[in-house]
Amino acid sequence: MTDKTPDPKDFIAGMDSNARKSPTRVVFVTRRTSAQVKVTDEGEVQTYPEVLFRALVAIEVLTIALVGVALLFNAPLEGLANPLVTPNPAKAPWYFLGLQEMLHYFPPVVAGVLVPGLVVMALIVIPYFHINIEAEGVFLKDRKRRILIFYLVAAALSVFLLWFDVYVALVPTLIVAGFMALAAQSSPQSTSAFRRYLSGRPLSFWIMTWFLFELAVLTAVGTFFRGPGWSWVLPWRS
After folding, report:
1. Sign of the torsion angle spanned by Cα atoms 229, 234, 236, 237
2. What residues have CB less than 8 Å from 140, skipping those under 6 apart?
3. pTM for this structure?
4. What is the DSSP letter of 94?
5. What is the pLDDT of residues 39-92, one digit of tens each?
């Protein structure tokens, strides 16, 4: 009597919990128990959408804040438009006053197309640079070469703004450049927590900080410091 070797394709009922050893099986699950599968590696990892959760919380908080402001304060609307009377100065909505302030210094193509397009393009592309994907400080690696590039770019941008007398944009640029210079002279082992924080900021952080700073300053100048003929006025003087 010879033993018959079972065909691997046959379904054999048995008790086994190792899916890698016996991938084809019939499992009997008794009451108040559950099937158990022992594996050493998983193709999928259970994760929690932490970034999405933070974004939802931020959106909800912002929505509540906007609703509260809308209920407590009236919109600063002006009177009905009169085609026979042109206001001086004719200001755009506040979210366009930064661009309108730039139009005071540059030609329309430069202020309205070239500069905003380059800034938006940089904000989209720079996060995918290798220097930023590493999520490390911009001056932590290849320090000498990056510091040299930083000073050259900062000097060229400052000369460009001085050439066109754009002092309102020069001040934020110099402030951000000063903080970047401080970050270049700092290290993760610095005794100051603020300097350790600056040394770990990536390139995208500095670009975004400069962009938001410039946008806030230009918008504030266009809103409060521009009078008839787009001349410089002080907001507390009539």
Report:
1. negative
2. 187, 188, 199, 200
3. 0.67
4. G
5. 566 666 667 778 888 999 999 999 999 999 999 998 877 778 788 888 888 888
